[in-house]
Structure of LysR family transcriptional regulator:
Amino acid sequence: MAALPAFEAAARHQSFSRAAEELHLTHGAISRAVAQIEDRLGVDLFVRRNRRVWLTSAGERLLKATTGALDGLDQAIEDIHRHAGTSPILTVSCEPSLAMRWLMPRLGDFRQANPDLNIDLRLAGGPVDLLSDGCDVAIRRADYGISEDYVTTRLWAELAGPVCDPDCWENILDRDLSKARWLHSRTRPEAWDDWKRASGLDVSPASEQYFDHFFFALQAAVNRLGTAIGPLPLVCDDLAAGRLIAPHGMAPTGCDYVLITLDRPDRDPRIALFFDWLMMMAQGMESHLGSGSGVREPEH
């Protein structure tokens, strides 16, 4: 085992001298390490001729196996260091729309308040495998079955309602949702039907348009292309800035956003810090509901 790194370097460089330089060993030490492996296996790993070496077929097979094993060890050591409680990096998997419209605009404030902890953000949705994906935590909308192998901690309840440009609502739609173009997302196609059932409002759109992702449908609403179902927190910044209004109010969708971890958040100081910050951001988001954010009482 101790000789394998010397063999790998010699095979990679096709040179004992270059391997010796890389590993800070002598040429003789590399040669003895390779000879030790050859004696153990009973085959030649190199063809030696005129002070040059070439791998034999057996050498090529061993190089492939050795490279994979050494790379795996390097990755395991890096992962252990990266995901230890003392690591300066926290790897977070987050749904793309939530990341782009809510989390990313706030990460600068997190970094300023916690300069020693860097957030490595990965955009992904649906079921997550924290170990295989190399992530410490995941933020998800809990609309699917989450494995009992994980600890799931509730962050906030999702609220949603129709959102559109305020001038469009007053001057073009004349405060009538049936005159609107309804914007749909293929990733959440049932959003409008769910809201209609929850609100008890039996109304149909003047026209409809579909987008591949929820992010695009919400951006289209900001750009006055129609009316979309806007869930908090994805539209809270637009509501606060007056780019959108929610004329029919916001109502619970029955889904929660959750933090998914391998262990309780308080067991890892990095995760505990991030979780506390998320909850503080959630409280600030909820405070917008009653502070001139564009959210109105439901109109039936």
Notes: The CA atoms of residues 8 and 64 lie 9 Å apart. The first strand starts at residue 46 and ends at 49. Residues 4-80 form a domain with the Arc Repressor Mutant, subunit A fold (CATH 1.10.10.10). Residues 296-300 have pLDDT under 50 and may be disordered.
